[in-house]
TrEMBL record:
The keyword Ligase applies. One of its GO terms (biological process) is phenylalanyl-tRNA aminoacylation. This is Phenylalanine--tRNA ligase alpha subunit. NCBIfam families: pheS. It is an enzyme of class 6 (ligase). Its EC number is 6.1.1.20. One of its GO terms (cellular component) is cytoplasm. It catalyses: tRNA(Phe) + L-phenylalanine + ATP = L-phenylalanyl-tRNA(Phe) + AMP + diphosphate + H(+). GO terms for molecular function: ATP binding; magnesium ion binding; phenylalanine-tRNA ligase activity; tRNA binding.
Length: 339
């Protein structure tokens, strides 16, 4: 019996683990309420008197050996956990980084800016709160010009000379006032029009307008520049210019691209014609050049302007313009992979 207990002492001394569960199994085996020591203490009364002393000593030794072992391993495991807390479990899979996404309007704007930068256009910006001169008058829209109605304007009530710009042509005026030709600049920005909000139009949207002023600029230069743009932007190489009217350009045109009629969507978005209107353009009216301090006998040029939302809707097949402004993460997250 005593030899058997000594064997258990040896077993307890030799025991080692770095696993909490295994330690618990060990503890229950030796010290548990139905464990070895409990049985041995129960056995004590049956031990002959002359052996009681030695028996008592060895079971006490077994008890302290097991207890010390459990304590020592417990401490070791705990200190390991603490240091693990500093460095983490190095084998654990990494936490995925949450990557943001660019807004589709920024994506398209950047793309347009890149395309025009490649042919020497710089980027110019101006204020969203404008005065009448830069938004209208300098652009050949004198005070009672009916074309002012084309763009329903938000005025600042206390001062009718102050308004929210209705197009970024105002930036072009500022640029011409401050710079000498040759001028090659594009002006991206937010614009405001007092229009009813629907799935197709919004009272706040974004534009990119372009301006090219030099000597002997021709309408063919305008068309080639726009053709280059539509090829780069949409991969489409057929455009047509339909006569139109803008007070600040003469002649003026609307630019359509041939989108094609391959799919049902093509039919829907082009209303069965295959053609899509994407921007307005024209040769800058000499009056505008004069208003901005440029010698209209020496210089001429072209201008164009497009809505970014419209293009983004085409490229990403977005059916409702309001989605751009709702900041619904389910919408925004879909642009994650884009640069
Ligand atoms: N400013 C015009 C608009 O907002 C667009 C345009 C710009 C047209 C330049 C012709 C030339 O609709």
């Amino acid at each position: 019996m005593i030899d058997k207990i000594k064997e258990h002492i040896g077993e307890a001394q030799a025991f080692t683990t770095d696993n909490k569960d295994a330690l618990e199994v060990f503890r229950i085996k030796f010290l548990g309420s139905k464990g070895l020591l409990k049985d041995l203490f129960a056995e004590f009364k049956n031990v002959p008197n002359d052996q009681k002393k030695e028996f008592g000593q060895v079971i006490n030794l077994l008890k302290t050996t097991a207890e010390d072992k459990v304590k020592a391993i417990q401490d070791a495991l705990e200190s390991k956990e603490v240091s693990g807390g500093i460095y983490g479990d190095l084998t654990r899979p990494g936490e995925p980084l949450v990557i943001g996404s660019r807004h589709p309007i920024s994506l398209v704007k950047n793309q347009i800016v890149d395309i025009f930068s490649n042919i020497g256009f710089n980027v110019s910006e101006g204020p969203e709160i404008e005065d009448d001169w830069h938004n209208f008058t300098a652009l050949n829209l004198p005070e009672y010009h009916p074309a002012r109605d084309m763009q329903d304007t938000f005025f600042i009530q206390t001062n009718p000379d102050v308004l929210l710009r209705t197009h970024t042509s105002s930036v072009q005026v500022r640029y011409m006032e401050g710079n000498k030709p040759p001028i090659r600049t594009i002006s991206p920005g937010r614009v405001f029009r007092n229009e009813a909000v629907s799935s197709r139009s919004h009272c706040i949207f974004h534009q990119v307008e372009g301006l090219y002023i030099d000597q002997n600029v021709s309408f063919a230069d305008l068309k080639q520049t726009l053709l280059y743009f539509t090829k780069e932007m949409f991969g489409k190489s057929k455009i047509r210019l339909r006569p139109s009217y803008f007070p600040f350009t003469e002649p003026s045109a609307e630019v359509d691209i041939y989108w094609g009629l391959k799919t049902e969507t093509d039919y829907r978005i082009t209303k069965g014609t295959g053609w899509l209107e994407i921007m307005g353009c024209g040769m800058v009216d000499p009056n505008v050049l004069k208003n901005c301090g440029i010698d209209a006998d020496k210089y001429n040029g072209f201008a164009f302007g497009m809505g970014i939302e419209r293009i983004a809707m085409l490229l990403y097949q977005i059916g409702d313009i309001r989605m751009f402004y709702e900041n619904d993460v389910r919408f925004l997250e879909q642009f994650k992979s884009s640069i």
